[in-house]
Design brief:
A hairpin with a 3-residue loop joins strand 1 and strand 2. The chain is an all-alpha fold. The longest helix is centred in the last third of the chain and has 29 residues.
């Protein structure tokens, strides 16, 4: 967990701007197919063959592009006086872990994370207000990126990755839709004034439904009850990741992590929930490999 820093005050957030909905939908029509294509690869007969690491280069490319973008946004938020140097240090550390994992050296990939975090802090000394922020950037981004690589590399890993996306996206959409309609008490107004308890439970229900729907497919070897529990856990992690990023943005005094995605802000604003959810999904996949959920 990041150190407990003093919070930077921001003006109260307004309700979601519905005039921006078109941009959000258009961005989704670009981002979702890109993620699905990279995950599926180029199988001509993909349904029975979605196992292992076949056709994984587009997936690696997606992560290899996304990780530096996240690092750039982190450098801009955490070290506005030296964003390039901090972003570069975080990028190198994260990609080192990613490429080690892709080459099936996952133990070394995990070892590279604390080493890279320490190196990033050293690089940031003298140029950043808090070098520990650079280290935390590595600890924040790299585990999610490495878990994404590992999850797809497992047996039936493509199905597990697709379930991750389905549950995460469903949690976001369900929370937004239910919260916008029902409104009600705020979930955590100090950090995220727009989120409500109704949206929270709506997102969890949607994530559980997505997990169950994925497990009902004939190629997915996971029981429905286990899939519902995985969906619930992924939904909780998605909400936690979203709230945590909101707290970080408050900490750094920014409204969005960036502006690369029209209607959404920065890439970190779009994948904050996924970064927590993939770690939970990887743990569920490991438990399944050990016999749970059959």
């Amino acid at each position: 967990m990041a150190p407990s820093w003093p919070m930077t005050s921001l003006p109260p957030a307004n309700r979601f701007d519905w005039t921006n909905l078109g941009l959000r939908v258009a961005s989704g029509f670009v981002l979702v197919p890109t993620a699905l294509y990279a995950t599926l690869g180029q199988h001509q007969h993909w349904a029975p063959a979605l196992t292992g690491r076949h056709e994984a280069l587009p997936y690696l490319l997606l992560i290899s592009v996304g990780a530096p973008l996240l690092a750039i946004e982190w450098g801009g938020m955490s070290a506005p006086l030296a964003p390039v140097r901090v972003s570069a240090a975080v990028t190198v550390a994260v990609l080192a872990s990613v490429f080690l994992g892709y080459e099936n050296h996952f133990a070394l990939g995990w070892l590279a994370i604390p080493v890279g975090a320490a190196a990033a802090a050293l690089v940031a000394r003298g140029v950043a207000e808090r070098p520990a922020d650079a280290a935390y950037g590595v600890l924040y981004i790299a585990p999610a990126a490495l878990c994404l690589i590992w999850l797809r590399a497992t047996n039936q890993g493509v199905w597990w990755t697709l379930m991750l996306f389905a549950a995460t996206w469903s949690a976001d959409i369900g929370a937004f839709a239910v919260g916008s309609v029902l409104k009600g008490p705020k979930l955590w107004p100090r950090f995220s004034p727009n989120k409500t308890w109704s949206g929270f439970f709506g997102g969890l229900a949607a994530a559980m439904g997505a997990g169950t729907a994925m497990a009902s497919l004939p190629y997915f070897q996971l029981s429905l009850w286990a899939a519902a529990l995985v969906g619930l856990a992924v939904g909780l992690a998605t909400m936690a990741g979203d709230l945590w990023e909101s707290a970080l943005k408050r900490r750094f005094g920014v409204k969005d992590s960036g502006d690369i995605i029209p209607g959404h802000g920065g890439l970190l604003d779009r994948v904050d929930g996924l970064m927590f959810a993939v770690v939970v999904m990887a743990a569920a996949r490991l438990a399944n490999h050990l016999g749970w959920g059959h």
